[in-house]
Design brief:
The structure is a single chain. The chain is α/β, with parallel strands linked by helices. It has helices at about 60-65, 90-100, 105-110, 115-125, 135-145, 150-155, 165-175, 195-210, 220-225, 245-250, 255-265, 325-335, 385-395, 410, 415-430, 445-460, 475-495, 505-510, 530-535, 540-545; strands at about 5-20, 25-40, 45-50, 70-80, 80-85, 100-105, 180-185, 215-220, 230-235, 240-245, 280-290, 300-310, 315-320, 340-345, 350, 365-370, 465-470, 495-500, 515-520, 520-525. The chain has a 6-stranded mixed sheet. A 6-stranded mixed sheet has the order 16-17-18-13-19-20, with helices on both faces. It has a 4-stranded antiparallel sheet with strand order 2-1-4-5. A hairpin with a 7-residue loop joins strand 11 (about 280-290) and strand 12. It starts with a strand and ends with a helix.
């Protein structure tokens, strides 16, 4: 069977600019090779997965020949027999529209915020010249990728969807025009284990039915083995090894592939001793959160329905559930970072004020670490400014009074010298060297950005961290380092953690207890080992089965 996509001797370089060592405005262009001499073929109905750590060149390999990256490609890349390398953007555009579909890594930035989901799907379906789909056809597209209430979702805007729901919208858009090749850049990274399995099974079914080929990018070598036909393991832009997926995972030859397999969290992995827990820190009772229904529909959508939880000093509670189950909404309501219709939150036995009445000092005891480490940092600020910001804004000084304008220096509880020392100490706590303080956020990798986000949360010496999918955007090697870092911080500082995650295997490694959410409710709660070994609720059983690959 002839290949639908052929790559031979592909190299990709990224051009950067460096100022000259003398005054003036001229610059030297520097070409850095990030992909070096890669070759592979893709046949109809076949799935080839490019696997490797962040920065290995996977995404550039997939996107640059199609003109969708800043890289400069050389070599050959033929789509349906037509050469892509060297074509101008006007020449590439119709080839992409007819023969290729794309699922990008960051679902929120890939969607237009002021367009409804229906508008996104209609545009995608018509890009190859087809007619505008009817509303029922658009709803069927969402139903195919597992979105609930698809007709209602059509009128929603991207910000109203969870990360996993947005990712499924992207997949629906990518296959709307029946492409010959689907290029999927981490298409399931924002989904829980059960949904990852479901989406990959869906894509595989579509491949069999339509003969569509798929070029899949993933950092989860073990996770794609059941769905890809072949794997190509990359490191520093070069191929480490390639072969049939199951064979490569079961008997990897290269040390690098062995490290990727070993770093993948498993439900049967050994667990380090967890630190002892202390007194009660946080109690949330009967939390309820709702949002207005979109479009012309009246009423409100219930996102969290009477959920309760507690966290003790030094304890890690993992809040686990599928995408859209209400995990992040509940955590944001408890931390007073999002809306809360009703319910009580006690912090060290004292009632926590509503979000509108929270003072700076009220937030010192618990600090958030958000899901996207890069997007959570201001790209214009230095690391020192980012990490030191809480010291200026979380002081013990009284709340703002309209007649009293305070400057940041007046609100500090520490001197400038002490602030520098505490920033350096926070960087050291997350294993970053002192010279990172002068770097800009835009210069950091995903793993480095997550460590900076952790340092920012730790600098005010909180008792509790609220981690929202703290490792979902990281490759397995970096994620394993972050988990080890969090375990060390628990032991050394007695730090409590409320960890929101869709990864049950990760929750088992990190948490004392696990609470499982579904449709805004906590449906099961217990010790981590017991929940994973003997799940009682059907939702938990499904998550366990998916984590085991069964």
């Amino acid at each position: 069977m002839s290949a639908v996509y052929e790559v031979e001797g592909l190299s990709v370089s990224v051009t950067s600019r460096r100022p000259e060592p003398v005054e003036g405005q001229s610059f030297d262009k520097l070409g850095t090779a990030v992909v070096d001499g890669l070759s592979f073929t893709l046949s109809p109905g076949e799935c080839l997965a490019l696997v490797g750590e962040s920065g290995s060149g996977k995404s550039l390999t997939c996107m640059t020949p199609f003109g969708l990256s800043a890289g400069v490609a050389s070599g050959s890349a033929r789509l349906m027999g037509e050469e892509l390398i060297g074509l101008s953007e006007p020449a590439l555009r119709p080839l992409r529209a007819r023969h290729a579909g794309f699922v990008f890594q960051q679902p929120l930035t890939a969607l237009t915020p002021h367009l409804t989901i229906a508008a996104h799907l209609a545009e995608a379906a018509m890009q190859a010249g087809g007619p505008r789909p009817s509303r029922s056809e658009l709803a069927a597209m969402l139903d195919r990728v597992g979105l609930d209430v698809p007709d209602e979702r059509l009128d929603q805007f991207p910000h109203r969807l969870s990360g996993g729901q947005r990712q499924r919208v992207l997949i629906a858009m990518a296959i709307a025009h029946a492409p010959a090749v689907l290029v999927a850049d981490e298409p399931t990274s924002a989904l829980d284990a059960a949904l990852r399995h479901d989406i990959m099974a869906l894509l595989r079914r579509l491949q069999r039915e339509s003969g569509m080929a798929m070029l899949l990018v993933s950092h989860d070598l073990a996770g794609v083995a059941d769905h890809a036909d072949r794997l190509l393991v990359m490191k520093h832009g070069r191929m480490m090894e390639t072969g049939p997926a199951r064979t490569l995972v079961s008997t990897p030859r290269s040390d690098y592939a062995k490290a990727l397999v070993a770093a993948t969290p498993r439900l049967d992995a050994p667990i380090a001793a967890r630190p002892a827990v202390g007194g009660m820190l946080l109690e949330a009772n009967a939390i309820r959160v709702s949002f207005p229904r979109p479009g012309w529909r009246s009423g409100r959508m219930l996102a969290v329905d009477g959920a309760s939880l507690s966290v003790r000093a030094g304890e890690c509670l993992a809040l686990v559930g599928g995408s859209g189950s209400g995990k992040s909404t509940l955590a944001r309501a408890i931390a007073r970072l999002g809306p809360c219709d009703s319910g009580d939150v006690l912090w060290k036995d004292a009632p926590l004020p509503p979000r509108s009445a929270m003072r700076r000092g009220d937030r010192r005891g618990f600090q958030p670490v958000f899901q996207d480490p890069v997007a959570s940092l201001d790209p214009r600020w230095s690391v020192a400014e980012i990490v030191g910001e809480p010291l200026a804004w979380l002081g013990q000084s009284p709340p703002f009074v309209s007649s009293d304008v305070e400057t940041p220096d007046q609100r500090l509880d520490v001197t400038r010298h002490e602030r520098i020392e505490r920033v350096q100490a926070a960087l050291a706590a997350v294993d970053l060297p002192p010279d990172f303080a002068i770097r800009r956020a835009r210069e950091l990798s995903g793993g480095q950005a997550q460590r900076v986000a952790l340092a920012r949360a730790l600098v005010s010496e909180p008792d509790l961290l609220v981690l929202d999918e703290a490792t979902s955007a990281l490759d397995v090697l970096v994620a394993a380092q972050i988990v080890a870092l969090l375990q060390r911080l628990q032991r050394e500082r007695g730090l409590a953690i409320l960890a929101i995650t869709h990864d049950l295997a990760l929750a088992r490694l990190l948490a004392h207890r696990i609470a499982v959410m579904e449709a805004g409710r906590i449906v099961e709660e217990g010790w981590a080992e017991e929940v994973c070994a003997s799940p009682a609720h059907p939702v938990t059983q499904r998550l366990v089965a998916a984590s085991r690959g069964s």
